[in-house]
Amino acid sequence: MKKLLLASTALVATAGIAAAEITFSGSARFGVIYTDGSAAVAATGSSAEITAATTAATTAKTTATASAKVVTDNTADGSVTAAQIAQAATDATAQANADAALDAINGTAATSSDTVVHNRFTLNIDGKTTIDSGAELFARVRVRGGSSAGEGGTTSASGVSAPRVGMSTGGLTLAVGNINGALESTPGLYSGAVGLTGLGWGNLPVNGSAAGSWFWDSFSSAGGGANGVEVIYSAGDMGVHVSHSEVSDQTSAHISYAFGDWTAALAVLDDGDGEEATLVTLGGSLGSANVGLKYADVDDGADSSDATTVWASFDVASGTTVTGYFTSIDNGATDDSFGLGFTHSLGGATLAGGVASIDDTTRADLGVRFGF
């Protein structure tokens, strides 16, 4: 006990000299979600995690198909064995498991109930220290858990993210690991969101594109992330962000500029395998309203699409705000999206709800969210 006390005292003393600091912050929400037709829920995995799961599912399908063919062919000529039948069954089970793992993170896993109970908890753990040169070293991990499950559905457990670690000095930041991603960090990307949960995030014009949804690198709240590197620089009203990951083979960048009450940004992405994306955002204030315009062009190497989003947010009463968006999508397959939502301050928490239509599927939610 004495040795433990001395070690703890030394750690505190050392941390004080180095100006070390650990902070906790987070948020939570709970409510209900309604989906017309039990459509797909939003993706929960990062681009790298979805890519890895897709590869695993494809490999499992190829193996299962080959095993099934062996059984079929050998049954026809009377040479099939018990071992071949058992192997085919094992491979079919492996394929089903791989498909389920992919569906669980890529946004295609559908709820089996129209109305489900929803909850989410997020805890950020941030550590930082300042070295003699004045530069700040930092690290973050996140604990995330939550479920949206009803009759016939399954619940989810909490997970801990891989770390994002880096250094900041002046207006320059370098980070590695579970990076935020340059396109993901584009100012205005998430503007116009409605509801408690985002309701499918149809306000993001890069979603519903030829490359699908959530195809870009971003911080994974309960997974490994992109294990990439990013450089962020800000000087006055201008900001620049560049990121790259060998895991996803994605390089993305954005530049933003603030002028008065308005901010404009341009982002680009290239995955080195024919997939390219361009995103332009503009948002600001007009009197008592906040408004914005976003445009995205995405080419996945085989198909291309473009989408335009307009959004507006108005204060309609004390503590009450109404937000709406419309996204026009031109890809020959996906219908336009639109949504309308509200927030009302509860003094320390927020009541939020909304309704949205994404690819002709109606979603609605209502609940409370708060930070701590």
List keywords for this structure.
2 domains, disordered N terminus, Porin, 16-stranded antiparallel beta barrel, 3 helices, globular, alpha+beta, 46% strand, 372 residues
Notes on the structure:
By secondary structure, this protein is of the alpha+beta class. The protein folds into 2 domains: 21-44 and 111-371, Porin, CATH 2.40.160; 47-106. The protein contains 3 helices and 17 strands. It has a 16-stranded antiparallel beta barrel with strand order 1-2-3-5-6-7-8-9-10-11-12-13-14-15-16-17. Strand 2 and strand 3 (136-149) form a beta hairpin. Helix 2 (47-76) packs antiparallel against helix 3. The chain is globular and about 80 Å long.
> Would you state the CATH class of the largest domain?
Mainly Beta
Categorize the overall geometry: globular
How many separate structural domains? Answer: 2
Q: Which sequence of SSEs, written as H and E, runs from N to C?
A: HEHHEEEEEEEEEEEEEEEE
Strand order of the largest sheet: 1-2-3-5-6-7-8-9-10-11-12-13-14-15-16-17
Approximately how much beta-strand content do the residues carry? Answer: over 45%
**Approximate helicity band:** 10-25%
> Helices and strands: which structural class?
alpha+beta
Strand tally, please?
17
Low-confidence stretches: 1-17
Total helices: the number is: 3
CATH superfamily of the largest domain: Porin
